Amino acid sequence: MRKSLILLILGGMLCATSTIMAQTLEFRGLKNNMRYDSEAEYDQYNYYVGWDADLGKAIFKTDQGVFSLKMQGNKLSNPELLYDDNLMYGNSGALYYDGTIYTVYSRENDEGKYEFVVRSWNAETGEKLSEATYPNESNLESRGMTYNPKDGKVYGLFYFTNVPIDFDEYDENSTDAGYCLCTIDLATMTLTPITQGLYYDNFVTLAASPEGRLFAMTSGGTLTEFDPNTGMMMGTFQTDADGYTVFINKYEHSGVKSQFKRQAACFDKNTGKMYWNGFINDGMGYNEWGSYGPLPDRDWKENGKYDTAIYEVDINTGKATLIDKIHNRISFSCMWVVGGDSSDSYAISTLLGDANGDFSVNVTDVMEIVNNLLNMTSKEFVFGNADVDQNGVININDLMGLVNMLLGNTVSPTM
After folding, report:
1. Could you report the per-residue pLDDT of 206-240, keeping only the tens digit for each?
2. Is 339's pLDDT higher than 70?
3. Cα gap 191→181, rounded to integer Å
4. In this structure, which long-range contacts are made by residues 229-238, counting pairs with CB atoms below 8 Å and at least 24 apart in sequence?
5. Is 241 helix (H, G, I), strand (E, B) or coil?
6. Residues 6 or more apart in contact with residue 152 via CB below 8 angstroms
């Protein structure tokens, strides 16, 4: 029995990658925008229900809410509306956090001043949990918010306005506007800026990896990474041909031109992969007279101006790979992987071979398994022991050697 268990666990670790590839992922996201192929499909979700005499108002069914999008291999299912509420809208940002959705809605009040309405919702049922209003000075307009599992904080790229400029020699009253990396207290919606200064890129997403790294996509389609400690974008400073110091981003262009419209990105905690709900093109092109500019709205079905897709983004290279286009062109203001979001307190790894429950399969699982099998409560079995052939690399030969050792065999590890 013990032999079978050892072989099963170690064998599971070797085939874990292929197991992951065969799994079906379910994305869920809060709708920001959608363009239907036909009026019939639009009418399926948007229609008059009737008059509510108790409330004294008409009731309408809408498509504003949370959609499910399933991925099998490189194919996406049609978006499925799970529940709706016309107030479940985040025109200034949205966040999924541990079973709760937060929407930030910007509006002009009766006094002609802008304010933010923040609502929280049960992500499983769509029930509204809370609602509060904050002044425009709270700067709650964001291009993305995300939970960082490394420090347990929620980060966001927030748009700050009327920020004093302390280096303007011409006008001491000058102010500026731009994006600032902040942490946010969800109980009070209070921001704590990290960035010393503002960024002027048109960011469209923010997502934290399972290891706590912060990534954003720009509207031009370039991946960026932020240092959560300093708020600085990661890259290098170089001197150009004219003698000016310029910032060079860590990543080259992703290969996908997107648009400055609200989008979303997330990580799957089980695989460490980043997914991006972006556009197919930048909405620009040549018209019938040969002039370059925005693609005409009247031909949006033909020119793909509003077409959206799910991409996988390689955080090592910055390149984006198209998985599939999305039916009816839905774009999300926030999205997450069901069972794979780092903020979920109930998230339990189901990866075959993930012995230590960190949602990945690697050498640390080998050490965890051996320590458990040999009843080493102090975890004496370490990396050096796992490297059976002492070549500084843990690979298939070492796994074979470990199997033989645990089974009491004296045969040297071979393929």
Report:
1. 999 999 999 999 999 999 999 999 998 998 888 88
2. yes
3. 9
4. 229/194, 230/194, 230/195, 230/196, 231/180, 231/181, 231/193, 231/194, 231/195, 231/196, 232/195, 233/199
5. coil
6. none
Q: Rounded to an integer, what distance in angstroms lies between the CA atom of residue 191 and that of residue 240?
A: 36
User: For the chain, what is the radius of gyration of the CA atoms?
Assistant: 25
- Contacts (Cβ under 8 Å, ≥6 apart) of 264: 29, 32, 144, 205, 276, 277, 331, 332, 333, 334, 335
- The rounded Cα 6 to chain-centroid distance in angstroms is 36
d(CA 336, CA 124): 13
CA count, 13 A, side-chain hemisphere, 199: 27
114: which 2 tokens?
């802008």
How many Å apart are CA 251 and CA 318, to the nearest integer? Answer: 5
pLDDT tens digits for 144-156?
A: 999 999 999 999 9
Does residue 13 have a pLDDT over 80? no
- For the stretch 361-415, pLDDT in tens is 566 666 666 666 666 555 565 556 666 677 766 666 766 676 666 666 655 444 4
Burial class from Cβ neighbours inside 10 Å (0-12, 13-18, 19+) for residue 68 reads middle
Interatomic CA distance for residues 118 and 362, integer angstroms: 41
Q: What percent of the chain has pLDDT over 70?
A: 76
Dist CA 283 CA 306 (whole Å): 8
Name the least confident of 4-8, 50-54, 97-101, 306-310: 4-8
Q: 30 and 97 in contact (C-beta within 8 Å)?
A: no
Q: Which two tokens stand for residue 68?
A: 């499910």
Q: What is the pTM of this model?
A: 0.77
Residue range 23-39: average pLDDT? 91
